[in-house]
Amino acid sequence: MKQPHAPRSRWSWSIGRIAGIEIKVHGTFLALLAWILVSHLVAGEKLAAATQGVLSMIALFGIVILHELGHALTARRFGIRTRDITLLPIGGVARLEKMPDNPRQELLVAIAGPLVNVALAIVAFAGMRAVGAPWSPQAVGVVGGSLLAKLFWANVALAVFNLLPAFPLDGGRVLRALLALRMGRVRATDIAARIGQLMALLFGLAGLFGSPMLVFVALFVWIGAAEEDALVHMNAALERVRVGDAMVTRFETLDARDPVGLGVERAIHALQRDFPVLDGARLVGVVSAAELIRRAAAGGAGDAIGNVMIEIDDSAAPGELVEVALERLTRAELPMLPVLDSGELVGLLVPENVAQVAGLRDAAQPR
After folding, report:
1. What CA–CA distance (Å, rounded) separates 212 from 200?
2. Which pTM was predicted?
């Protein structure tokens, strides 16, 4: 699964890097491993058998990492960076900076993950034939059974599942890319999103009468399809829109030398979540109201705001295209981008305000 612009999670921890891409594990995945271990022990199995069940799940998610690396490394060929890959109970999520706008490139990125599974399945099948290991589904079990058979069927299942046309899963993205070759990207996304939400309903119904995990998959697909559709509509509405037409022009600033306590007082009376920080007339950083309150509550009300802020060395110009500026803002993972005109701070490019402008423009479009 790929999630452009997916938010960070405080419940994820880094376990290493592969090909320069950070690999994270979410707390819920660790909870899943603990649940598997306890389930085996409660069923009366020995610790060794329970441990094997946990190791089988870890091996399965190793395959998931390779699947996500297929997406990430293919996207890298088109100049798109992957921030990290996070393991969740429902699979892996690769946080790409964005999906390619070119349908052919998106097709290659989307299909790369399932092709990794196909390749691994072929290798596992060849290994089974070479050693004479059984390869039927009956040879697979959570505990015991042929390891090569487990690898073969796990990769077959992942390839088939991910190629279902359930946008924004891989198959849905393949469908969107193929449709976009024949029609506009917005129309293609509308169709793929509707099909994805129909698939989500089917997953949900199957989950009610079978595996509860499918209910979570259904929620992911339904919400993901809606968000991706909204994102594409927003990007289409912002075409040729300049930063000066979407920036916030009424805002408060803070001084880097002022104490945090004064910043908290200013934040209480301002309708802002984030504040530009100036050193005299020079922009030096940005700080959130939440961070000011946290520092003050920890006894740091007298600390200088400059010691709390995030330093910023990027800005936008009023005449710049919004989509270009937003891409830089997303890549830097900043809450906002200051807008400078001849060195003077004249506005703030805030994602929430840009989304509101895009919504108004999209609503005004003829249907």
Report:
1. 13
2. 0.73
